[in-house]
Amino acid sequence: LKTRLARLPSGAPHSIFLGVTSRCDLACRHCKYAGLGSSLEMPARVLRKLLTEAAAAGIPRAVFFGGEPLLYRGLESGVTAASGLGLFTELDTNGVTLTAARASSLAACGLSSVMISLHSHSAFRPDALSGPGSFRRAEAAVLAARRAGLITYVSSCIFGGSLPSGDLERLLAFAKRSGSHGARLLAYSPRS
Q: To which H or E segment does residue 82 belong?
């Protein structure tokens, strides 16, 4: 991926982000998908067309997200298609249902990387935001992804523009201890 990105002309798109479903298995207080009340799914033919066009345009990376992309019925076939087109494939997930078996299955389909939502280094904040047990399940998902050989990132929302004193250091230390390859920090944007 790094080599392909280096070859892109200046200003060329480096990724296609595919919102494959609006469904989610959590109801995070900060998320725009919580309590949406309707379910939108990307048709498989549309997904294939977008992947084919992205590859033809020289875009090297496809990111599957949602809602929760692990709930999308065509995820494995979408990952297989993207990988078959030579795209670096990435999953942006809450990790609730990313078991060892599912991580291995997705890796076998050609998934390269996974970003797992985890909003703190300890259970208190994630469980308060996303529901009891969400921290434990995300922590298990990080381990499952690493064991499946996937490049793994902890993905965290930054609320109110900052973290309480020391929290960033503790989050990064947690990411390192868990075997993650890094951390992605996202600015919180309120639901409209």
A: helix 75-84
